[in-house]
Amino acid sequence: MAGIDKAAIAFSIAIVAVGVGIAFSMGAAQDAAPVVSTPSVATKTVEPKAQADPFADIADKVKQEAPKVEEKMMEKPQEKPVEKTVKVEEKMKMVEEKPKEKAMEKPAGPTTHSVDIPVGTSVPGCEESNACYLPADITINAGDTVNWVNIDSAAHTVTGGSPADGPSGVFDSSLVMASAEYAFTFNDSGSYDYFCMVHPWMVGSVTVN
């Protein structure tokens, strides 16, 4: 009986030793296994850097100089517009006075008056309507000139005087051919009759003031 008890005790001790060994080996295996850690996620947000404004300096300068410009504008005298209005009024007066000055001007100098010798006057008949010279009677100022133009195809004369009394000797064109002209300046006032020596029915007159 004593032998059996000793064998049972020895068997129990062996089982305990085997269990302890197994437990020990499993703990060592767990220690040797690699440790896997879960990756960490970064939650920090990076704020973008603010870009520098290239016109910031110019804008600041404009803001600083704006009050100075306003002060200069307030300091300037506002007299120029008044001067301009005065000048405009003076110009208007000058424009209004010019026509008056022209009205006060002396009459123009000596002028030239034209008298035609019409076509067909070489034949009697123009004397009936006093159209042998056109115009037949003319009034001018002293110093003016009368220019006779022969439009007829025949030659004529412009001779001071009358057919009844003959030439006066004051002026005489002699023969004025077709398309030719004769001019005479009357410096003295008075009444001057004239006629054509070739065709005595042709008469005219010049009155000089």
Q: What do you see in this structure?
A:
The chain crosses the membrane at residues 7-29. By secondary structure, the chain is α/β, with parallel strands linked by helices. It has a domain at 112-208: Immunoglobulin-like. Helices cover 36% and strands 21% of the residues. It is built from 3 helices and 8 strands. Strand 4 and strand 5 form a beta hairpin. Mean pLDDT is 76; it is low at 32-43.
CATH class of one domain: Mainly Beta
The main sheet orders its strands as: 2-8-7-4-5
Average pLDDT number? 76
Sheet-strand content, in percent, reads: 15-25%
Describe the biggest sheet? 5 strands, mixed
Q: Could you give the order of the helices and strands? A: HHHEEEEEEEE
Rg, alpha carbons: 69 Å
Q: Enter the CATH topology name of one domain.
A: Immunoglobulin-like
Number of helices: 3
* N-C termini distance: 197 Å
From the helix content, strand content and strand pairing, which structural class follows?
alpha/beta
| Helix percentage range | 25-40%
State the assembly state of the protein chains: single chain
Protein name: Blue (Type1) copper domain-containing protein
GO molecular function: copper ion binding; electron transfer activity
Pfam families: Copper-bind
Subcellular location: Periplasm
